[in-house]
Backbone:
């Protein structure tokens, strides 16, 4: 995965919960297209909801992958529910919390919350703005019988860098 939509893992309880953060920055190119100034309206840069979903999926996917020391190729199989009540703007921080609901050799079911942290001169406030239910498949244990490359192409160098810079070690 080349595009990372989380910046740091801040908490890991193996096989239970993972918390990650994403700092929304005006330096990110996608914010300039969402939404540009037009017809006398000023620009309104917001983090696209699809990228928030991807941040949630990366957070939960790392949790599921970590549970088996990244031996499995974990892929997102289904988004069961996604709700969000507020836009994330430059200067905000998103905090994703993923929890394993159920896990077996075929895959895992997770639930998650999205919090928006606003930073001001007097401090920071966190507000829950969303919820998500995700299902993951362990690709090598899929029912199709299809064979995939032996190397773990899901958890590549970007994920290893993210994990090690967050203080998480492993045998990946």
Residues:
């Amino acid at each position: 995965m080349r595009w990372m939509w989380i910046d740091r893992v801040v908490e890991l309880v193996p096989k239970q919960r993972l918390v990650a953060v994403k700092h929304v920055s005006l330096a990110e190119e996608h914010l300039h297209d969402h939404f540009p100034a037009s017809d006398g309206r000023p620009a309104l840069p917001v983090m696209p909801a699809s990228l928030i979903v991807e941040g949630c999926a990366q957070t939960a996917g790392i949790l599921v992958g970590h549970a088996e020391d990244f031996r499995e190729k974990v892929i997102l199989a289904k988004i069961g529910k996604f709700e969000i009540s507020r836009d994330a703007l430059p200067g905000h921080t998103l905090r994703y919390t993923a929890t394993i609901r159920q896990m077996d050799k075929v895959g895992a079911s997770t639930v998650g919350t999205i919090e928006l942290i606003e930073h001001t001169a007097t401090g920071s406030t966190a507000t829950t703005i969303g919820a998500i239910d995700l299902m993951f498949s362990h690709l090598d244990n899929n029912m199709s019988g299809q064979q995939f490359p032996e190397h773990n192409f899901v958890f590549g160098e970007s994920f290893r860098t993210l994990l090690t810079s967050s203080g998480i070690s492993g045998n990946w």
Notes: The helical segments are 49-67, 157-165. The CA atoms of residues 96 and 114 lie 5 Å apart. The chain has one domain: 8-35+42-150.
